[in-house]
């Protein structure tokens, strides 16, 4: 006697696509810089603008533009912090 086997059902396939890691935009450093400078110095404002441009580029999947703007944001943020420290030191020297 022949045994009847159930027909095999097609199994759904799962495809996993891994996208490249998004580089760091340095927006946190730009916001900290802006807070330190009270948004008064142009360097802090430029850092925030560049960080926002980097985030916009990442949103459009423009990784190269995001990386470029993120690096620019980091440079502006560092310049802003250095400016704030120098102004603070000059203020202390002049006042005291």
Can you walk through the features of this model?
With 96 residues, this protein is mainly α. Helix content is 64%, strand content 0%. It contains 3 helices and no strands. The termini are far apart. 26% of the residues are buried.
What would the keywords be for this entry?
mainly alpha; single chain
How large is the radius of gyration? 26 Å
Major sheet: size, sense and barrel closure?
none
Give me the count of strands: 0
Q: Hey, roughly how much beta strand do the residues contain?
A: under 5%
| Number of helices in the DSSP assignment | 3
Ends distance: 107 Å
Uncertain spans, ≥5 residues at pLDDT below 50? none
The share of residues in helices is: 55-70%
Concise description?
The protein is mainly α. It is built from three helices and no strands.
Which helices and strands occur, and which strands form pairs?
Layout: H1 27-36, H2 42-59, H3 63-95
Helix pairs in contact: 1-2, 1-3, 2-3
